[in-house]
Structure formats: C-alpha cells, structure tokens
Amino acid sequence: MKKRLALICCIISCMLVMAGCSFSLVKSNDNFDEKVLEENTDSFVQSWFEYDFESAVTDYAGQLDDETLSQYKDSKKLRDKYGKYDKKDGSSLTITTDTATVTETVLTDSGKKLVFSVTYDEDGNTVSWNVEEYKTKGEIMGKAGLNTVMSMGIVFLVLIFIAVIIAQFKYIGNAFNKKKETEPVVEAVPAAPAVIEEEEDLTDDLELVAVITAAIAAASENECTDGLIIRSIIRK
Length: 236
What we know:
The protein is of the alpha+beta class. It has helices at residues 2-27, 34-50, 53-59, 66-82, 137-167, 169-182, 203-219, and strands spanning 85-95, 99-108, 113-121, 126-133. Helix 3 (53-59) runs antiparallel to helix 4. Mean pLDDT is 77; it is low at 22-28.
C-alpha cells in the first residue's frame, strides 16, 4: 500500500513540475501579452473587411499557393454574405509554449457573426488565420449529432449488406451441388481384351491327311489317290 501511495505521489509531482515548466515558458515570453495580441487581432479583423480579395486573386493567382488562393476566395464569399464590420462581440486567448491564438467574434451590419482565429509565433508575428461562420452550441451539437447518426447509419447498412451476402452462400452452394448432380456421369468402358491369334500348326494335320488318304485308298481297293479330296477332319 505504501508503495502505491509513493508511486501516485511521484506521478503527481512530475505532472506539477511539467505544468510549472510550461507556465514559466509562457510567462517568460514578453510577446505573448494579452492586450497587445488582442489589439493586433483587432487591426487584422478590420483590415480583413477592407481588403480587396477579388483583385488579389486576379492579380496574384500565379504567385499564390492553392491553400492561400482558396482562403482568399472563401473570404470574399463570406464578406459578400455577411456584410461590413460593425463591432467586436468578444475575444479569447489561448497560449502554448511557442504560439498564441486569439479568437475574436465579430458582429457584422447584417446582424450575423463571424469568428476570426489569428495565431502568432513566439516573436509576435502572424503565423496563420482563419475565418468561419459563427455557430451556437445548439447548432454545433446538432451538426455533431447528425454526423454521428449518419456514420452509424452507414455502418449498419454495410453490416446488413454483408449479412445478406453471407446468407446467400447456402443458396449458391445448393445450386452448385444441384448442377453437379444433374451432369451425366460418363462411365469408363473397359477395353476389350486383345485377341492374340495363334498360328495353327498344320504339320500334324498334313501327316494325318496322308494317313487317312492311304487308308481310304486301301479300303476302296484303289491305290490311286488322284481326285481324292479331304474337305475336313473332325476330332472326337
């Protein structure tokens, strides 16, 4: 138990030391003065409403990178939609070890709001900026909820599609087996045994024919065998 408490105390001490170091780094940078950064952001916002983005896009289209060109075009659309600058509605400052970001909400003459985010480096120079439409917490939560519902719907549709495909496997297997059963089975016909013809030995038959011919001639009291023809010999 004591070891666990000691370990927890060590972790908490490390976190406090890291937080203290981060805080000291931020405070040691004189360029991250909140009042100065807000004044710089106010000047940037007012110049944004006066800047001629259309001419910049036309004249410097070949010199601007794609991201800056797209940012200028979007800025022109937002300004045409929301109108001119009316007054500042509020601002907030976020500071890290090497950057500071001022977020400022501006009310336009159309009654709508725009949100400006300007980021400064440790020397106080502008690093990046962004302008977007102001949205209430309800609108943000509604959009987040809509995105969640759409994402879940897509996931369920994909799962249903996969389940339907898996369910069709048994029908595909049955159709394949049925087709296999209907195919005619060709039985192999055994080859007929080769008939080996043996040459008939006629030597004994000739001797037998001569003996029979002589016997017939003796029985017929005619020693001449001319004209005597033996057609066949049948053994019994």
